[in-house]
Amino acid sequence: MRVLITGANGFVGQHLTRRLKHMSDVVVETFTRSDDPVTLTQRVREIDWVFHLAGVNRPQDPAEFMTGNYGLTQQLCQAIAAKHAATGASTRVVYTSSTQSNLDNPYGRSKKAAEDALQALAASMGVPHYVYRLPNVFGPGARPNYNSAVATFCHNIAKGLPITIHDPSAALTLVSVSDVVDSFVAAMAGQSVVRDEAGFAQVPTQHRTTVGELAQQIRSISQSQNMGSPSNAAEAAWWAALKSTYFGYAQA
């Protein structure tokens, strides 16, 4: 099986690339910012799966949201359509969208447009696809002080730096990067994928907390290095993932 990962140098992309390269029956190709999108047409011809993780979330010019999120997705869809027209073969697609795609802002609109492009492709050609509207993803290797509260809190608390909390009661839904990759690999293996009522793929294990509670949990790990006695498997997994993230920064 041949797999193409766009955004392979990103946070999720690096974790997925490492996982797939350990699978003997998978050949991994990568697409990063240094690659020319024009090459997608030729490269997709030999590909069975595309994990489309590339995207723009903090550009200097808001117009780059649409270019980087929708524009690249549209080029990918055209490449898949060209392959289908020439060979009749389908390419399965996993796309990492965002829970913000429902929001009326430049980022949300660009992610929604990318979703629509993939769904139009699927409708016209029957191309299997999985659109994940991911919430906040955390885990070792996430960039602190960028777009991950978990990474920022873990890094700053581990280094004795202050953290800023504007609203301690603000709700957070979190998924660990290992659970994200597990779900992607399950989809590739033909296993059932959890979907919400609108048909969007979901990572099965999600952790719901608040900003204030998250900060307190990380401080607890910092002070005691002990997760205590979890009441169930989900809680144990949450603490294990949080500790792994924290100690990644504490030992760096």
* Helicity level: 40-55%
In the predicted model, the low-confidence regions spanning at least 5 consecutive residues are: none
Strand percent estimate: 15-25%
Calculate Rg over CA atoms: 19 Å
**How many extended strands?**
8
CATH topology of the largest domain: Rossmann fold
Q: Biggest sheet, in brief?
A: 5 strands, parallel
Order of helices and strands: EHEHEHEHEEHEHEHH
Which architecture of the largest domain per CATH? 3-Layer(aba) Sandwich
Q: At the first level of CATH, what is the class of the largest domain?
A: Alpha Beta
Protein structure class: alpha/beta
What would you say this structure looks like, in words?
The mean pLDDT is 92. The protein is built from 8 helices and 8 strands, in the order βαβαβαβαββαβαβαα. 46% of the residues lie in helices and 16% in strands. It is globular. A 5-stranded parallel β-sheet has the order 2-1-3-4-5, sandwiched between helices. Strands 6-7-8 form a 3-stranded mixed β-sheet. It folds into 2 domains: 1-134, Rossmann fold, CATH 3.40.50; 135-175 and 204-252, 3-Layer(aba) Sandwich (Rossmann fold). With 252 residues, it is of the alpha/beta class. The protein starts with a strand and ends with a helix.
